[in-house]
Amino acid sequence: MAGDDDSMRLARGPIGERRLERARRIVDLAWRDLPGQHRLLLENIGASRWQVLDRPLGNSVNDLLISAGYAQLLPAGRVSLDRALGMWIERLHLVLIDAGHSVLADLDDQTFELMLVRTAWHEWGHALSVVRAEHDDVAAGERLLDLAPDGVREFIRRAGYRRSEYTHELIAEIYALLMSRRRRGHTGQPPWLADEIYRLVRRVSGWSE
Ligand SMILES: [Zn+2]
Question: Structural domain boundaries of the chain?
Answer without folding.
Answer: 9-108, 133-209
